[in-house]
Amino acid sequence: MKFHYPYQKIVDLKSSEKTQAEWLLSAAIGKLQAEELSLEQLLEQRAIWTRRIQEAAETAVPLAELQLIQTYLDALDARISRKTAEVREARQAVDRSRSHLTDKMKDEKVWMKAKDRAFDQFRSAGLKREQNELDDMATARFVMAAR
């Protein structure tokens, strides 16, 4: 007799939900990495422009050009602030996705353990049934031999 678990569809659903949660976590991590890379590039740009303004201040450069560079630096600072907030949000999204995945993994594990217990009971019942049949055969042989 073949083992048939009546709640197999639920086990499959829980497994599918876990896989989906893994994909969501992967996407969140990818977004976080992209945001961090973008922030790093902005910080590099800021360092370059900060050096330029320092070099310009040391040489004879028109004040208008210094003001223009400073305006650009201010705009870069604003972009860096926004990007830092986006990185923070992306980290929070990764944390939420990890938590969601953990919940789905626990859910799947509970259902898999229930399936394993049901299989163990099925196997135990089969072994008991087989042992009873062997006992009946042995008893029948003993009775036949005693006659």
UniProtKB/TrEMBL annotation:
InterPro entries for the chain: Flag_assembly_chemotaxis_eff (IPR053716), Flagell_FliJ (IPR012823)
Subcellular location field: Cell membrane
Transmembrane segments: none
Gene3D superfamilies in alphabetical order: 1.10.287.1700
Coiled-coil portions: 25-93
Record membrane topology: Peripheral membrane protein
Keywords of this entry: Bacterial flagellum biogenesis, Bacterial flagellum protein export, Cell membrane, Chemotaxis, Coiled coil, Membrane, Protein transport, Transport
Domain of life: Bacteria
Record NCBIfam families: flagell_FliJ
Protein family: Belongs to the FliJ family.
Name assigned to this protein: Flagellar FliJ protein
Source organism per UniProt: Paenibacillus cisolokensis
